[in-house]
Amino acid sequence: MTALWVVTGAALVLAVSGWLTARRAARRLAQLSEMYWELRYQHGELRNQVQRLPGAEAAAVPAPDPPAPARPPDGFVPLKSLRR
Predict the structure, then answer these.
(1) How does 18-50 read in b/e, with b if 16+ C-beta sit within 10 Å?
(2) 50 closest CA partner among 42, 21, 11
(3) CA 50 – CA 58 distance, rounded (Å)
(4) Which DSSP helix (H) or strand (E) runs through 15?
(5) What are the φ and ψ backbone dihedral angles of 7, each rounded to 5 degrees?
(6) What span, in angstroms and rounded, lies between the C-alpha atoms of 39 and 33?
(7) What single DSSP character describes residue 44?
(8) What residue ranges do the domains of the chain occupy?
(9) 12-46 pLDDT, tens per residue?
(10) pTM of the prediction?
(11) Helices marked H in 53-66 — which ranges?
């Protein structure tokens, strides 16, 4: 009977530890997400400021080339045509 209480206590300690770790990870994820979007906003603002500078038109960076088109997916082949 004592072994059952020990297992129960260990499971409870493990569950609380996991719950605290999950809360800490969620809080950190929210913080990192907020920092990411703030950085993207600041990057856009700085890009606009640079574009408004005199002489920025000559030094403008061209847009990157669009990626090559992907290979088209294989078409549907009915099973009846394979049996012939």
Answers:
(1) eeeeeeeeeeeeeeeeeeeeeeeeeeeeeeeee
(2) 42
(3) 12
(4) helix 2-52
(5) -65, -40
(6) 10
(7) H
(8) 28-53
(9) 999 999 999 999 999 999 999 999 999 999 999 99
(10) 0.53
(11) none
